[in-house]
Amino acid sequence: PQGPALLEVRDLHGWYGESHVLHGVSLDLHEGETITLVGRNGAGKTTTLRAIMNLLPRREGLIRIAGADMMKVPVHRTAYSGIGYVPEERGIFATLTVSENLMLPPTVAPGGMSIEEIYDLFPNLAERRDSPGTKLSGGEQQMLAIARILRTGVKIILLDEPTEGLAPVIIQRIGDVLMELKKKGMTLLLVEQNFRFARKVADRFFLMEDGHILESFPTSELDARMDRLHEVVGV
Ligand code: ATP
């Protein structure tokens, strides 16, 4: 990738209380690009996403979006910098219906999708519009969580294991949605253990171990590096 990164992370450290978990994460994500963070359990992938979103009690280092320093931006203002987060636990409101969930997110930037656009992209959510979150399948919850972020108009989305626990046909559907978002020019950072899924959507892979990035490479090199990947990721 050429030119300045849209999201730039340099030497990012992060702590939970006394526990120093991120040891200098550096990565760059260019506009319209999709990258995937891989690494074994506990490597710090989720913590990296949380640190970028300013959800850790303590972090140090440098994070820039479109050149602007993010380190002083309070957590409730991060979305206004154009970045959204779909956590592994999805964060939808269980007692509210699909349509109510879709009405809550604030528009933070032009280009936030209308409810109609959301239902075009996720026809199954349209069918379930009056169902409460508790009644949705795992796949529907994941789609609702992504849809909520799309309502806001952010251009960068961090997704933590979007395929976890889902059936192959639903995983395929989520892959189609992410490809659609890429076509629209969205910039995506995935944490994903499912390589078959990740290779379809990602442009580059970042290999993480012990709280830092070991190496990164384009998806075209994935096959050649599979042994190395299995060694680091342990699957
Ligand atoms: P996983 O796939 O298991 O979520 P991960 O790569 O996302 O793996 P993290 O969840 O970021 O890893 O965890 C990194 C380290 O931080 C681990 O050692 C974990 O035990 C620790 N950790 C995670 N969350 C907390 C927390 N809330 N308090 C204290 N330590 C935590």
TrEMBL record:
Keywords: Amino-acid transport, ATP-binding, Nucleotide-binding, Transport. The keyword rRNA-binding does not apply. Coiled coil: none annotated. InterPro entries: AAA+_ATPase, ABC_transporter-like_ATP-bd, ABC_transporter-like_CS, BCAA_Transport_ATP-bd_LivF, P-loop_NTPase. This is ATPase component, ABC-type branched-chain amino acid transporter. The keyword Transport applies. It comes from the Bacteria. The lineage of its organism: Bacteria, Pseudomonadati, Pseudomonadota, Alphaproteobacteria, Hyphomicrobiales. Residues 7-235 form the ABC transporter domain. It comes from Aurantimonas manganoxydans (strain ATCC BAA-1229 / DSM 21871 / SI85-9A1). Pfam families: ABC_tran. SUPFAM superfamilies: P-loop containing nucleoside triphosphate hydrolases (SSF52540).
